[in-house]
Amino acid sequence: MRARAWCVVAAVAAGLVGCESDDAGGEATGKEPFGAVSEAVVGSFEAQGADGTVRRFEARRDGVREIGGVSWPQWSLGDFAAGAPPRGGRVWLTWEPGSERIEVAGGEVFWPENGVAPAGEPFVSGTFDAPVVLDALPPVGEPQALPVAATVVVGDPAAPTQTIEIDVVASYTLVEVDAVAETAAGPVAGCRIYEGSAEVLGEIHQARVVYHPELGFLGGSLDYPPPEGFSADLAGLIDYGVAASGMNIIKGMGVVSPDNRTFRLSTYDRAGEFDADKTVHAKMLLELRWVDDDKARTDEFPALFGPDFGTVIGMFPASFVSSPISLLHPAENGKGYTFWYAFVDQAAKNEPGEGGIAYHAGVTLPDFVSSPMRVTGRIVYHLVAE
Fold first, then answer.
1. CA distance linking residue 244 with residue 21, whole number of Å
2. Fewest CB atoms within 10 Å of the CB: 106, 178, 296, 331?
3. What angle do CA 296, 260, 341 make, to 5 degrees?
4. What is the pLDDT of residues 161-188, one digit of tens each?
5. CA 269 to chain centre
């Protein structure tokens, strides 16, 4: 039962995380709305299990999986770092840019302490008899039937300890559009809220999903396993961009707070290389607001270390200024919030050495400040020629 429930959670969550598209075409000024993320996005989540333990995990695309002669993009949710037993789930799905259609082929769950499969092998895995098709924008309030037929195996797929055939009709309903989600990464406007249910082995289970049409899966919950079930919440994201040459864009959002006082974007983190062109101006923007709505409606200046714009050995002077308008989150405009900006448009032509460099943008919350701030940033830069 636990195995099947985790398969459903992983499929829904990763399916929505995978619904992404690239930034719109045209020359970027650095001051556009945050926009849709690309397949290079890495989401950081906080997950709370049935025992109340909170874990951090990442969601990212990490290759493809061949299923029935078809290559399916693979998305992982969890800890799949080298050198440790994998923990979390993977799903295989496709999404057609410009549509609200999601197709999921199947998935697998890794749980090292399962007591059935050795660590490193999937605890449970399975594929649907036919890909499950999700409509991310059905009529509000109208339940959508979702037939689910699948073969699920427990243990090594090549020699499973148990094979389970699932044939149920689940249901999901879009209950709210244009909602504001209060995530661990700060408030996010323009969200959709879904509620779903499915009867498995005579038991009905409920789920809730928070989704943004440009950012993807932001959080959700499932009432299994007992007693508290499972929940996940977006804690931050970084989109490293997909350009192979020319201009690339990295962007991200998160919260600086007493638990995590520094936010930082760096072009080096994209590929672990100094691949930014020092002769071409980089446009770097940071935008902040207090997470608390009431505090965000004041003009209280944030006491911050930064903005920190620079390269490995240099820095670009800048300061924060206030504005009643959000460039990166325009859905929040007109609600009385004060936003704080810093922007530079600079190159490092005089920096010594040949080849590329790294640009970075960041900010730190001082120890004497306890109120959290949402930070959103972007770096538009040119890749060095191969």
1. 16
2. 178
3. 40
4. 889 898 989 999 999 999 999 999 999 9
5. 16
